[in-house]
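Q: How would the structure tokens look for this protein?
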Amino acid sequence: MKFRFQSLLFLFSVLSLTVQSQDWRDGMENIIYAPRYFGPSGFPIPELRKSTVTNRFEMEVRGEYHSYSGDKTKDLFARIMIPIVKEKAAIEISAVVFEDYKLTPETKEERFAADTESPISYNGDVIVSTFFQLLKKPELMDIMVSMNLKTASGGRLVDARFTDAASYWFDLTVGRKLYNNEEENAYISMQGMAGFYCWMTNDRVHRQNDAFHYGIGFTANYKNLSLQSDFSGFHGYKDNGDRPMILRNNLTYEYKKNGLSFRYYHGMKDRLYETYTLGYIRYL
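A: Here is the predicted structure in token form.
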């Protein structure tokens, strides 16, 4: 009799776990594939770069803190920039190496997430970007194009952290120096960016969402100190939380091939987060 009771209890436990697992899968079908309903790194907003391809090898690691009322996220981000042809072409590989988060019950319900925090460790998506210099005429303008692919390597789709689906974007960046003093290594430049952004969704009818993405900003440099500010975003066609905007500010100090970077991002519309980062860059 005791054996039968233990067997029934074990069978009930297994069935309960199976039902819970199935509930998670059912909930994942309801997840909205848009920046408003994912973690801060689930849909990268294309970054406005300088309009020239770097000729330096760069390695960066930075800690990031993303905050809004329903989600507190901390992550570790790393990237490597590799020049291929001097001042003509380069490739960059970047990724969220580790992420930790805590959601409120209200945000968990809004996103159809399974948990308010991850019971396991996980990593984010790997992004591969290539840059090509089309034109470099300081007296006129500089033009650079980039092609970017986000892989489906990120984890915790069940909590709407990363999409487990590929996306890509192409853009063209145009820039011009408004002021230049080579003796002081001082300049002010303006950049503008426009491109096409596409990502896969879980919608059985519309399998992908397309967006126009954009950015405009300035770079000010004096000796070893640089400040970059830009307003960027993208505009999806579904209007289901797919129109994020962001104001970025990046202050960098360089000393003997070492860089220290502090960033502050202010999210708007479908970008819900305030972001603070501190990074270390090694230039070679």
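The helical segments are 2-28, 105-110.

The two ends are 74 Å apart (CA to CA).

Upvote if useful.
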